[in-house]
Amino acid sequence: MSAKANAWLASCAVSPDAVWRAWNADRLAPIASTAWTVVEAPLLPSLDVMRPLGRVGRLGPVLGCPEDNLACWLVGDKAQEHLGGLSELTLRGPGWRLPCPAVGQYSGGRGWVQRPDGSGLLTDPADLAAAFAAASGSGTVMLGPDIRARRPVTPDAR
Known about the structure:
The structure is a single chain. Strand 3 and strand 4 form a beta hairpin. This protein has 158 residues and is α+β, with helices and mostly antiparallel strands. Helix content is 31%, strand content 22%. The radius of gyration is 15 Å and the shape is globular. Helix 1 packs across helix 2 and helix 3 (43-55) crosses helix 5. It is built from five helices and eight strands, in the order ααββαββαββββα. The protein has one domain.
């Protein structure tokens, strides 16, 4: 699974060859993709939010950065619309450089808490907003395939 996931991550980068060179040198690869928005959130609350999303199959890749107390969520379209009002989150738009280790590796204080599966599946920002609202006690989680279908993101979506 790591090979497929790494191939997908690299293919989403502006320069896939640079990503592979960094990983082969055991360094983080700064991936500036237009295929997703990065949502930075506090690590411990993120771990709580991951559980309900994972339970209903709605959890995309999450990069953990324990030294910075951050989780970096890879989310799909309309992130600002759904997540912009949550003060505990920082949105980094498409093209922002996310320093990533290879899947299955821990490097530079970072590792994948939820690994990409290689399919292009991302967390839906509306689902993430609902899960954070529920975790903070300000909302109800309404997740599942009957609520919203996720679409995988491919490198062609850049």
